[in-house]
Design brief:
Number of strands: 0
CATH class: Mainly Alpha
CATH superfamily: Phosphatidic acid phosphatase type 2/haloperoxidase
Strand content: under 5%
CATH topology: Vanadium-containing Chloroperoxidase, domain 1
Helix content: over 70%
Shape: globular
Number of domains: 1
Length: 180
C-alpha cells in the first residue's frame, strides 16, 4: 500500500511541476480571486439568504448544508492530521507557493471539499444551477493547484470528500430534523 501512495505522490509531483515549470501562465490575480470565492463566507451567505427568502427549498438546503458541513469539516480535520501530507512548497526545494496556506498539510483540499459539497447541495435542490456550480467548484480546485498549495490528488480527494458529505447530509437531514 505504501508503494501505491509513493507512486501517486510521484505522479502528483510530476503533474504539479509540469503545470508550474512548463506552463507559466500569467494568471495570479484571477486565480487568487477564484480561490477566495471558496473561503467559505459565500456559502454561508447564500444558505442564509435562501433560508430567509426562498420558501420552497431554502430552509431545507440550509439545514442539510449545516449537517453536511459539520460532517465535511470533521472528516477533513481527521484526514489532514492522520495523513499529514506536506504541501508542495515543503517537498519541492526550488518551489515557492503564491499564497500562504492556512495550515501545514495538503491532503485533502478543504476549499475543494467545501466547493463540491455546496455544488452537490445546489444540484440537489436547484438542478438548473448544477452545471455552473460544478464548474465553479472545479475552478476552485484547479486554483488551489495553480496557487501552489495542493497537488492534483488533494483536489480529487477534496471533491470526493465534499460530495460524500453532501450525500450524507442530504440523507441524514430529514431523519434528524424530520420532514424536510
Amino acid at each position: 500500500m505504501n508503494n501505491l501512495f509513493e507512486r501517486v505522490h510521484q505522479l502528483d509531483t510530476l503533474a504539479f511541476l509540469w503545470l508550474h515549470v512548463t506552463k507559466r501562465f500569467p494568471y495570479r490575480k484571477s486565480v487568487r480571486w477564484v480561490s477566495r470565492t471558496g473561503d467559505g463566507h459565500l456559502y454561508a451567505l447564500i444558505c442564509l439568504a435562501l433560508a430567509f427568502w426562498e420558501p420552497e427549498h431554502g430552509s431545507a438546503m440550509a439545514l442539510a448544508a449545516t449537517l453536511a458541513y459539520c460532517l465535511d469539516i470533521s472528516a477533513y480535520l481527521v484526514l489532514k492530521n492522520v495523513i499529514r501530507r506536506d504541501r508542495p512548497a515543503m517537498k519541492i526545494d526550488f518551489y515557492e507557493a503564491w499564497i500562504t496556506p492556512s495550515d501545514q498539510f495538503s491532503f485533502p483540499s478543504g476549499h475543494t471539499a467545501a466547493a463540491f459539497l455546496f455544488a452537490a447541495l445546489v444540484a440537489s435542490f436547484y438542478p438548473v444551477m448544477a452545471v455552473p456550480c460544478y464548474l465553479w467548484a472545479s475552478l476552485i480546485g484547479a486554483s488551489r493547484v495553480l496557487l501552489g498549495v495542493h497537488y492534483p490528488s488533494d483536489i480529487a480527494a477534496g471533491a470526493l470528500l465534499g460530495s460524500g458529505a453532501a450525500f450524507f447530509g442530504l440523507y441524514l437531514a430529514p431523519i434528524i430534523w424530520g420532514g424536510l
